[in-house]
Design goal:
Blueprint lengths: L12 H7 L9 E8 L5 E3 L7 E4 H13 L4 E6 L19 H12 L4 E6 L12 E3 L2 E3 H17 L4 E4 L6 H11 L6 E8 L6 H7 L19 H13 L3 E5 L5 H10 L4 E5 L1 H12 L5 H15 L3 E4 L2 H11 L1
The structure holds ligand PBG.
The site of ligand PBG has 11 residues, from α6.
Length: about 325
């Protein structure tokens, strides 16, 4: 006789619901948004169907809509014209510039929205790199000063969570100190702790026109073959004062999410990146997979691996479907 029959716990929807170990909710999501200059302007990212670059006025409307759906946290990325880019990312601290001006407007209009910002030089850099370039090299310590100024300027415009995505050494501690020195002890840091040099960022770089103008990002982003290195990065970020540790990309790095979650007493975030979104949309458009079902399965797998926060382009469509299910 078979005593152990795991199928008993799968025999009906009610039982399945009772024994379900993980759930997803809009509270888990951060919705990334792409910002462009202009008025009443919107353009779909070709490689990301359903995702639009929005001018400030339309972004305000988008945030309002998303808040009604229960999405409360937004990560905002600017797409800038080449004329605003230089070697030192000067535009990144311009309060009258597109990005900082928009942050202030959002916080003014929706003080209850939680705003995450990106700290890295690439959208503002004529080199298209996350750090300061000298003789073809990405110079770590000079970059830190620029990043810290950027972070403080963003905090001054109301940012709630600073997201350093640059992978320079020592940046979390450096930014923490700069924020504290300026009185922003309550502004959080979600560190891109284990950010891999990944092909999955392709559609994002199209969206922002932010691809490196020479070389690649392998001297600062991590080698996809490594996991011990993620532990080292996690230790440093924790010591330096990060409030969240992020893993990026998510789907191909579920083991890294689990590794960090098992080893650190900090909330783990995962960035379900542009290429992961694009793959699902492309296969679904061809009728090769059920896109909604695969989306939900991917998001659940990220949660199950140990991420309590998921940055995902699927946030809004998930929330819309959830509101219809109710
Ligand atoms: C750059 C940055 C990237 C992403 C977020 N911040 C791309 C890169 O490192 O080239 C990728 C996000 C995505 O692909 O969705 N600082």
């Amino acid at each position: 006789m078979i005593t152990h029959r795991p199928r008993r716990n799968r025999k009906s929807q009610v039982i399945r619901d009772l024994v379900q170990e993980n759930t997803l909710s809009v509270n888990d999501f951060i919705f990334p948004l792409f910002l462009i200059d202009g008025k009443n302007k919107t353009s779909e990212v070709k490689s990301m169907p359903g995702i639009f670059r929005l001018s400030t006025d339309l972004m305000l409307k988008e945030i309002e809509q998303c808040m009604k759906l229960g999405i409360k946290t937004f990560d905002i990325f600017p797409s800038l014209d080449d004329k605003y880019k230089d070697k030192k990312a000067t535009e990144s601290t311009n309060k009258k510039g597109l990005y900082l001006r928009t942050l202030s407007e959002i916080k003014e209009k929706f003080p209850e929205a939680t705003i995450m910002t990106d700290v890295a030089m690439d959208p503002y850099s004529s080199d298209g790199h996350d750090g300061y370039v000298e003789k073809g090299e990405i110079v770590n310590d000079k970059t830190l000063e620029i990043l810290a100024r950027m972070a403080v300027a963003q905090a001054e415009c109301g940012a709630d969570i600073i997201g350093p995505s640059d992978m320079m050494d020592g940046r979390v501690g450096y930014i923490r100190e700069a924020l504290d020195d300026h009185g922003f002890t309550n502004v959080s840091i979600m560190s891109y702790t284990a950010k891999y040099a990944s092909g999955f960022y392709g559609p994002f770089r199209d969206a922002l026109d932010s691809a490196p103008r020479f070389g690649d990002k392998k001297t600062y982003q991590m080698n996809p073959a490594n996991s011990k290195e993620a532990l080292r990065e996690g230790e440093l970020d924790m010591i330096e004062g990060a409030d969240f540790l992020m893993v990026k990309p998510a789907m191909s790095y579920l083991d890294i999410i689990k590794l960090l979650n098992d080893n650190f007493n900090l909330p783990i975030a995962a960035y379900n990146v542009s290429g992961e979104y694009a793959m699902v949309k492309a296969a679904a458009a061809k009728g090769w997979i059920d896109g909604d079902r695969v989306r939900d399965e991917i998001l659940m797998s990220i949660k199950r691996a140990g991420a309590s926060v998921i940055l995902t382009y699927f946030a809004k469509e998930w929330a819309i479907q959830q509101s219809k299910r109710k």
